[in-house]
Amino acid sequence: MTTDEETKRPGRPPGTSDTRARILECARDLFARNGIDKTSIRAIAKDAGVDPALVHHYFGTKTELFAAAIDIAIDPMDVLGPLREVPVEQIGYVLPSILLPLWDSELGRGLIATLRSILAGGEVSLIRFFLQELITAEVGSRIDNPPGSGGIRVQFVASQLVGIMVARYILELDPFRSLPAEQIAQTIGPNLQRYLTGDLPGLT
Questions:
Q1: Helix 108-119 and helix 91-104, axial crossing angle in degrees, nearest 10
Q2: Per-residue exposure over 108-146, b if at least 16 CB sit within 10 Å of its own CB, e if not
Q3: Which tens digits make up the pLDDT trace of 137-179?
């Protein structure tokens, strides 16, 4: 005799579109309250009343789930992951050369729309956790000189990148919005690199 468990067929885990929406809502809430690093797939699944496998089925990795939570169509690690192979003294130059073309692309429109929503009163804490946790985790430890400065260095970089996004895509300042992405990347790269590895007041 076979049990119910043995007769279950492999494939798509049970769930509905309502289940997916509930997972996303719980993830958004937990990310906002606890941050990315302190929120596990298991905790999200428990909050949503589902098996963790179902969360992975619908959303993949935790960073992919986070991307869905803030409504962007790209896994943040697709952008940040390649920076692991970039020498520390080049990160400030490479980062904008990756981000500007992405923001200018069709894919980047979703990210810009999300930024507009946040500026209009959306979930600021999710973006804050993204900047403070994911970017700091990927880059901060490599530029933590003197010790303890990695986080603030990353935040200086983030402040300039967010400023670029607002000026170019939200306010659409002319002629700034029409400048080639490469020109902007080359212009801000040295300053970003100074934030990451240079001498900064109060950090030396």
A1: 90
A2: beebbebbeebeeeebeebbebbbbbbbbebbbebbeee
A3: 778 889 999 998 998 999 899 889 889 988 998 889 999 999 9
pTM: 0.66
60 token code pair: 């993949």
Burial class (CB in 10 A: 0-12, 13-18, 19+), 204: exposed
Cα dist from 44 to 62, 106, 137, 141, whole Å: 10, 31, 21, 27
Residue 10, preceding bond cis, omega within 30 degrees?
no
What pLDDT does 3 receive? Answer: 44
Listing DSSP states for 100-162 in one string gives: HHHHHSTTHHHHHHHHHHHHTT--HHHHHHIIIIIIHHHHGGGG--STT-HHHHHHHHHHHHH
Q: Which residues of the chain have pLDDT under 50?
A: 1-14
Return the pLDDT at 103. Answer: 86
Q: Enumerate residues 6+ apart whose C-beta is below 8 A from 192.
A: 91, 92, 93, 95, 96, 157, 160, 161
